Fold this sequence. Notes:
The complex is a heterotrimer. By secondary structure, chain B is an alpha+beta fold. Chain B folds into two domains: 3-65 and 79-112, Helix Hairpins (Orthogonal Bundle); 120-238, Immunoglobulin-like, CATH 2.60.40.420. Chain B is built from four helices and ten strands, in the order αααββββββββββα. By secondary structure, chain C is mainly alpha-helical. Helix content of chain C is 67%, strand content 2%. In chain C, α1 packs antiparallel against α2 (29-52) and α3 runs antiparallel to α4 (107-124). Chain C starts with a helix and ends with a helix. β1 of chain A pairs antiparallel with β1 (78-80) of chain C.
Amino acid sequence: MAHAATVGVHGVTAVAEAPIVAEPRRRRPVSWLTTTDHKKIGIAYCVTAFCFFLIGGTLADLMRAELAEPGRQLLTPQTYNGLFTIHGIVMIFLFVAPFGVGFANYLIPLQIGAPDMAFPRLNALSYWFYLGGGTLVLLAGFAAAGGGAKTGWYIYSPLSNLRYSPGVGPDLLILGLALTALATLLSGLNIVTTVFLLRAPGMTMWRLPIFTWNMVITAVLGLVAFPPALAAFVLLLFDRRLGGFAFDPLGGGDPIIYQHLFWFLGHPEVYILILPFFGVITEIIPVFSRKPLFGYTGFVLATLAIGALSVGVWAHHMFTTGVVDNPFFTAMTLTIAVPTGVKFFNWIGSMWGGRIWLAVPMLFSIGFMLNFLIGGVTGVMLASAPIDFSVSDSYFLVSHFHYTMMGGAVFGIFAGIYFWWPKITGYLLSERLGRVVFVFLFVGFNLTFWPQFVVGLRGMPRRIVDYDTNLGWNTPNLVSTIGAGLLTIGVLTFLVDVWTSHRRRTLAGDDPWGGYSLEWATTSPPPERNFASLPRIRSERPAFDLHHPDLQPVAAAEPKANR
Amino acid sequence: MSRARVAAIALLAATASSCSSSFGMPSGASEQGQDIFNLWQVFFWAAIVVAAVVYGLLGWSLLRYRRRRAEPDALGRQFREHIPLEIVYTAIPVVIVIGLFAASISTGDTVGDVTPNPDVVLHAEAFSWGWRFSFPNEGVIVLSDPSGEGVPGPVVKLPVGETVRVELTSNDVIHAFWVPEFLFKRDAIPGRTNIFDVTPTTPGTYHGVCSEYCGLNHAYMTFTVEVVPAQEFRSWLTQQPSESTA
Amino acid sequence: MRYALRYLWCLGVFGLGLGTLYWFLSYEVVGAVALWFFGFMPLIVATWWTLRGTDEALSASDDPEARPQDRSGHAVGSFPLVTSWPVFLAMGVIVIGASLVYGLILLPAGAALFVWAIIGLARETPD
């Protein structure tokens, strides 16, 4: 069985001069199980992540349906508590992060001019860990003996101790999370090695596309941040199943230690979620403004600063515990707002003096900017410990992180999908339907989450199945649910777009948008080893230089020859 | 009146009201809450200014720099950087952030200040799923029935103008004590006692909730704080069950 | 290659520095240890690399004037286009994990699958 299962077809060496051999495309379904091709794995990540998005979105719709009016109508408290637990895990760890990894897997080798990732089999392994971990999470939520996991996505102790959360749900959740974390960590390893070692001739670090730069920093963050959380999860399992008292005060443990370890991952995690999509829209905005990126060097330095600082802000999630050094974390969190904020000026500078083409990817990028700004300034408010005392753990906080994660990252996901769909599939998605999707998502998103700021300020805490009728929370909640309905229509319209575009198959060609990075210098879809021939690389816009031979390539940041 | 004038007047009215508005935040029924409210207004104004600048520039770019139908492939001005501008637009946020930090620290100090001689001590013990309030110096207890759907939480009265020291802990899992009108919450952690001061300034009835998810009936773990004149508070205390008998 | 080394040193120094600052400001042990570890990990690699010495010649990837045909570097190995060992390895790890929840009876099966797949992966790369 062993030899039949492994088809020993060997590809070209990783770093060497070798002819590109056109391999027959493997169309059998089993090829998805045995592939190590980064493009196939990237697509698998994205498709799987999108399925998890649909699941997480359905859970959200159920919650919003319950919260539309005061009084319990549809769900029991048990069910509701399970829904928000699984919704959080699914959206963060099974949708947004893997989608970033999926884009990275597909694009990084193409953008740096490499035939594949540095560790293709590890790449495949990461995907299967992700799929397995995700399945365990779904089992934890919906098919666990003793009821699904209802600990909240933080899985705080002592609530997650066996005494208060019996059954195997939380154990499955922790296991699934650990596996998914492992997948992301291994992908991070792959990404860093690939970018450091497999760049094409002339593709210096300071000519990398911003998406690749951001993924490198994301990958390093993943490598740094996941181990403490994995330690916390192991200790939790210890407490639950092996009679430990790491976090249980009854045995001399301290639940605050869990929070420190969890948030040491938790905060870099949100940067792991958003940095890829900062990268995505930074690819899109200059292309659709017909200008180079404004301030490339500053942008990279800002992203490095964000990556580094993000490791030092974790306890701003713990201001209300009363046991952390509030001034330190307020200072660090306010500091990190600066490099995050100046990116807006990079983007606006890239549009200034340009010829802006409002194609669908650009619409989503602009939507990203509009939404993320609100997420960002409310984040600055939350950075201040005294303000946090009033708005933490309320719907104000919920709205803040949805503005950054959904208004930001998810809009970035749709921007990236519309931008790279022609490259990946060879045909275009519909501009018309894409605009409809954008309008429904943008209006729906803001209608869903703006009222949540209002109701949070009026005192509505998070994670509650129900609320009293005389608190002034009724109308905003109803409006929010209507917004959720619009969001659902938008997502469904997107699926219709995918279906009809697939039927229609309007061929895209190599470069339908006038793109800048190397993936636009090869066919759509790319051949098996990505490039039949590599162009000369003299700037951060090699495909643009190739397609505009009349213009002299100017590098944004020229490295000195002896660096 | 023409529609344009009506619209202009409406816009002006909305802006004027929001200038003195709380931007949705309660103005604080305690001294500490009012300090936080003032800080909130600083942050909110800073946010409005930043948003106006960014949205303004963005909107201007979208209006002014669109590609022309006649020249779909024309390029924009190919500039890549402007170091002086980049330095300025990095320095200004740094200055803003330093100001916000200074304001936060000053407010944090006054809000977190715990006086050595409080007028009243309130011992708040959270449990799944209810509250056990007691006034140890007066030997009085206010206990809620375990909360559930439709079960009202306990009502605890506090005196206007007196400093109440709250000693907060939990019996089981982590809960949190939040009175939105006081603009303040603190976690109730088993094995720890969190201490903070509240000096109510405005009489009224205020809703309180548990704001740290604690399991099944987290949503129903509410309570009510009534801020009343000191005289009324003391006579209310004498009518509560004493701790030794409860 | 030089860039990687520089970034690792910067990360290491930053992590140790921030951890030390945090320790003296807060005396909170979990965060300080986590930050020190964050600094320590890249320093392991950076120190080893520095002592071993990096390749002084500029690789084509870092040469701003390189042409596509200037690919430098030697073959480090080949990788298979198609292999099923990753699936089996992942299945082994998942079964081991699931055995902690569903019953240790699954543990031997998971461990066997894991070991078999590891051996298969290791033996797969020819030369």
